[in-house]
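User: My collaborator and I are trying to settle a disagreement about how two of our proteins should look. Neither of us wants to argue from intuition anymore, so we agreed to look at predicted structures for both before our next call. Could you fold the first one, then the second, and keep them clearly separated?

Assistant: That sounds like a sensible way to settle it. I'll keep them separate. The first protein:
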Amino acid sequence: MPDARVQAAIDNWAPRFTSQGVDGNDFARTTARIDTWEEWLPSWVATGDEHRALAEEAEAAGRTLSAGEAWVRGALAYHFAKFVWVLDVERNHDVTRAARDALYAAHRHLDPSAARIDVPFGDANLVGNLRGPRDAPLVLLLPGLDSTKEEFFHWEDVFLRRGLATFSFDGPGQGESGFATHIRGDYEVPVAAALDALDWPRPVGAAGVSLGGYYAPRAAACERRIRAVAGVSGPYDFGACWSGLPGLTRETFRHHSGAATDEEAREKAHDLTLAGVLGGLQQPALLVTGKLDRVIPWEQTERIAREAPNAELVLYEDGNHVCNNIPYRYRPLVADWLAEQLARVG
């Protein structure tokens, strides 16, 4: 019988795993052998290791496509091993590196043009993955609290197929960038640093999911180089959501925010607010959410759309958090909309 945290992870995020590319059979057999939260990370690492072995076997046989596909599956398994698992920081970091390395192995086979971009940021470096044509409009893909660039390979492909380039960005407190940085509410500051590092010659848009659905509108409201923005299931005020958040989400925020106590984490959550900011969001904005969202109430995203001067709201009656139970509806919508908006200004 799974313990409460294992069951919560399954109940809250199962559709996310499969929509991001985890095979449904992998999800079923991996979670079936997990009874305690302590077992979550090593069980998913074992699944990642299986795909790593398949990738290495395919490489040895010269089957580069099969190798690349297996490396992507491995990267996702390693990512979801630690995505909200913060019981041991060193193990979390080790598996974060394993996910990163597996994805870069996938890039070598599936997209050799992909490039790792280091973004100078004070005493630290932030990191992102750049894919797609260098002469195309660019979409910044902004993860949420527990997502990272390693989760976005298939999400990137949705934009790449529409002729756009993508930059999946681990900002402060996210993925490997979080080894030396913490979450900050003024996400426009790291986004500006990323845009400086990229110096992109074509129009730039941004799309964020979950807490990234806060980061993207926040950045666009303060950064005119972003010409259009989409946010999916983002909070208007993360602190106002605190009491209703899953316990694992609160634990993960405490870790990534650098808070020493639960109370300090709750106080830091209130720093992530769009109050008084959205008047600056003059660019076209698309806000998407689902009425069945159990993580960020849909009314939070609706408020962003209501206060932004040039925003459109899409509310799916049957959508859950990030609408991951209906990815075939929200993903093409967001990608098509951004492609159209950037073409108008390009």
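The second protein, kept apart from the first:
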Amino acid sequence: MEFIREGDDLNNWKELVTYQNFERHGKSSPEEILNKLKANREKECPGATTWNVIDKSESRILYEWQAKRCLNWPEQSELATIIVGKDNLFLLHYAAKVHELAPDVRAQWIKRFSDAAIQPTQK
């Protein structure tokens, strides 16, 4: 699912929040999953992206990246977290079409993603 601000559209957004939920296959750690994402990005746009891991644990990793213009992608910054559950893998992203996020915006999204948790399903 992708969310944009009112007045934007998916082809012309300024800020974008994405929620992804995948069935988990294998036992890859969050860091291994991030390394695969990095490798794919490097293949598409060599040397265009700078990565920084903010926090990590056995079941999650919080990271950010800044990318120069490449292919059809604009210059942008992103904060994201990968959370590994028992059966699913969750990715949460906040992206903005800026070179670097403002410190208060960055802090706000780091807190939101740090507070994000998987709630067990009620039966």
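Some points you might bring to the call about the second protein. The chain has a mean pLDDT of 91. Helices lie at 30-44, 103-115.
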